[in-house]
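Notebook, student rotation project (T.W.).
Task set for the rotation: take a protein with a known small-molecule partner, predict the structure of the complex, and write up what can be learned from the model alone. Partner molecule chosen: adenosine-5'-triphosphate. Sequence and SMILES entered below by T.W., checked by me.
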Amino acid sequence: MINWEELKHIHVIRKLQQIIGQWFYAEVFFLDERGNVRNYDPYDRQREFKNPICGNLLPKDPGREMLLNFFKETSERFSQDKENNWIINGPLGFEKVFASKVMLDGEYLGAVIAYCHVDASTNPEKLQAAAQVIEQKGMDRELFEQAAQKMKVLSPSEVKYFYEMVSLVSQEITAFHTEISKREARIHALSNQLENRYSYNQMIGKSKPMQELYSMLDKVSSSEATVLVQGENGTGKELIARSVHFNSPRKTSSFVTVNCASFNENLLDSELFGHMKGSFTGAIKDKKGLFEAAHNGTLFLDEVGDMTLTMQVKLLRVLQQGTLTPVGGTEERKVDVRVIAATNRDLKAMIEEGTFREDLYYRINVINIQVPALRDRKEDITVLLDHFMLKSCKEKEVPMKQITSRAMEKIFDYQWPGNIRELENEVERLVVLSGTETKIGPEILSHRIRDAVATTSSGAGGKTMSVKFAGKLKDALEELEKIMIKEGLRRTKWNKSKLAKELGISRAGLIMKVDKYGLDKRKLQRDAELAAAAAAAEKAGGSHGGHGSGEAA
Ligand SMILES: Nc1ncnc2c1ncn2[C@@H]1O[C@H](COP(=O)(O)OP(=O)(O)OP(=O)(O)O)[C@@H](O)[C@H]1O
Ligand SMILES: [Mg+2]
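Predicted structure of the complex:
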């Protein structure tokens, strides 16, 4: 669509219109693709016309109607014609009209019409006939004749210039529109890259980690590479796997999911690779495995970290050779499958422990997607809440509910170990518990969320350590330092050199701090023993007391 309003600001076009008016006494009109005049306002009584006939006709109802109808009909016929320029007679017969199409990629977008001019071919009889028409339509014949006298009779060379000028206007409009469309396409492409996307397929999130994830997915989807999706519980690993498949060239073939944790070894074997009739008790007929079901499509190996070592060997063989042998079978079968694997386990640590094969790890980890935990992108909580609230209220057919700011605070403070799934469940629970109430306050939040205190999360091991955000900064920092050292000592099994390196301090500095906070191994062990003994004593005493009070009652 041409932005017709914009054209009045284009200098070249204005200049051309001006010249055409001053030199040739013609009025330039822009018609859109439906034949409506876009640069003429009937209510604008101030407008002056360079063309005397326009000046005479347009302010009067019958005159205006005649001209506008003529433009509309002309545009209709013009759009069907293969010529790009037209010279035709005007509605009064004595005047001439030049029209030039505005075309883009072979499509008619409108026209520029110059009304009107007279040349040597105009004779007094034609003018008389026109004046009669004017009279019949109830307009003043004399005024019309005076206006007609003011028209300039163009010489053949002037006519030539005139036509060139008018067609220049339509060319300028086309050029301007092309430029605008190009710019819009460019802006659209750029803003797609830059603009914070609130969602991607079914994923919601506008935080930086999610933006990075989206652009990663943009790149990954078109490839054929094996993908390993890693992230904590409920972060959306399966959603991501689906998105990769449904944006890939394999989207028209199957997306097959297999949860590696939910089968024992023998079953998983036959589930993945299929089996032959009679290969084990219960195998009453040949059965195709999920690998074959996913042929030409994608196989999603969920919880891949839960596969036994034997299964890992078999999987590796299929991935490397592209062939498999069903349980009890002898013949190899070819399969073309893209594999996406997901796990919440630390596969690197499993490799060190010897429970996950390094060669399989490198085979599936061609592209690695780390899904950010919700606590590391808390700015997404609001959009996720809105999304789940809308979904839940719609499902339950209740009016939309709002979470009060006091409840929001608690929700933000909470660390969301169960991530999006936990948030989704909490919203559903709140919608049910709030009944007919449309405002949701902190009272009905789950206990663990209501009791949340603001905490910092440590990068190491994803564990959360509690540091209260109150009081003196120095105390808080010392508290944090103490927790980090204590946790680090336990994790490194009291390897102080290693921990000092990790924390970026000298070994001597660490030993000093260990002394300062009373964190030496023997003291901690003794403290732990004492605490355990005290707890045991209390338990014994407590149950006795309980029993006693029961008796008394
Ligand atoms: N970014 C997101 N936006 C909206 N909903 C999400 C998002 N991520 C996850 N979900 C929803 O949260 C729930 C859990 O997602 P999903 O099953 O993909 O997570 P997962 O990482 O595979 O979980 P698990 O560790 O339990 O296997 C689903 O209902 C999913 O639709
Ligand atoms: Mg999952």
